[in-house]
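thread: overnight batch results

M.L. [08:02]
morning all. the overnight job finished for the chain we discussed friday. pasting input first so we're all looking at the same thing
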Amino acid sequence: MSEFKNKRKQLEYKLRREFIVEVAEKLFYEKGYENVTLNEVALKAEYTKATLYSYIKSKEDLYLEVYCIGLAERYDYLDKKIKAGTNGLDKVRLFGKSYYEFYKENPEVLYHQQYLDFRPVNPEKIDSNLMERFHELNVEAYMVVVHAIEEGIKDGTIKDELDPNYLYSQIIYALRAVASAAVYQRKPVQNEENSEEVNRNWYFSFLDLLLSAIAKV
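M.L. [08:03]
and the structure it wrote out:
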């Protein structure tokens, strides 16, 4: 009986934490991280603030949990898409294509990603297991692209003078900036109508430019 009770408590804890994270994710996206308080999260989740601290360590801890969920979803999505590539360069192309498509369907994940790009994580305010998961997810996301680049260098579709580590960072930061402008329709093309189609075409024309720059002729 005690074993059953323990399992039930663990399940209840997991479900309540997931609910709190879901509530917080919506608030963070709608109002911005800086404008959301734990009091507000507790009120929205219908818990006291004291109860909230039974499930999270801090506001930073809660936000990183939101981020990690989105990062894991993005990794799973991109990893499946990239595997369909016929060579290294094609896998990088599929990565770029799927990168836009994922963020187009999940703009909140892009928002959280960009926020943490410019805000360092304080490990002292984060649960140690969550920090470990955060690092593992980032390594996984890194490796799936680096492996595609290395494959391209080996199979002759990507220039062999390029450094996979440098190229990974350059691809990620460039595509994230362009995807952000396209997904949020920030009118990157000044002399055309600001439509979803124009923004999509603008993103993919940049992707083509990037691929032509790294392709081995």
